[in-house]
Each structure stands twice: as structure tokens, then as C-alpha cells.
Design goal:
By secondary structure, the protein is mostly beta strands. Helices cover 0% and strands 45% of the residues. The protein has a five-stranded antiparallel beta sheet with strand order 1-2-3-7-8, with no helix packed on it. A three-stranded antiparallel beta sheet has the order 4-5-6, with no helix packed on it. The two termini are 19 Å apart. Bound molecules: FE2/S2 (inorganic) cluster. Residues 25, 27-28, 30, 44, 46-49, 62-63 line the site of FE2/S2 (inorganic) cluster.
Length: 85
Amino acid sequence: MAELDAGFVAVFNVAGEFFAIDDVCTHDGGGLAGGGIEDHQVICPRHGARFCLRTGAALTPPAYEPVRCYETRVVGGVVEVLDEP
Ligand code: FES
């Protein structure tokens, strides 16, 4: 997890590729950092909504709105999350 000015961001390592999304489920505000990962999707631990880690799209109910995604990069072995639109 990382903290940006806008709040907490969940960072996931999927086969060496890093993805960062807001750590707030758009259904009811659950944290996504502890969610399971399947096929580049994170599963909200609270009610099971799935979000695409590549786009932030809400893929299954009960969430319908996307989560924000952030660009990531690895510099000197450190994962950086870019807080830019
Ligand atoms: S809070 Fe995430 S699915 Fe309900």
C-alpha cells in the first residue's frame, strides 16, 4: 500500500508487473489492498465486486463505478506510483 495526497493506493504485483489503484471500493468503500487477484482482477474482500487492475473498470456487481488507476514504475528496485491524471 502507498499513501498519496489523495489517499491510500493499493499496489499489486502480478507476475512482476505492478498495478496501483485507489484503495477504496466504489460499492461501499471497502479496502481493496487485501483482495484476491485473478486474471488481472482484484476481488473486493467485502462483497466480491471485481475490478480490472489495468483499467480500473468495475467488472461485476455490486460495484458499477470504476476505481482510479495510477501509473507505476520501478526505479532502483523501488516501486513508484505516479500521482498524475
Ligand atoms: S465494498 Fe466492495 S463490493 Fe461492497
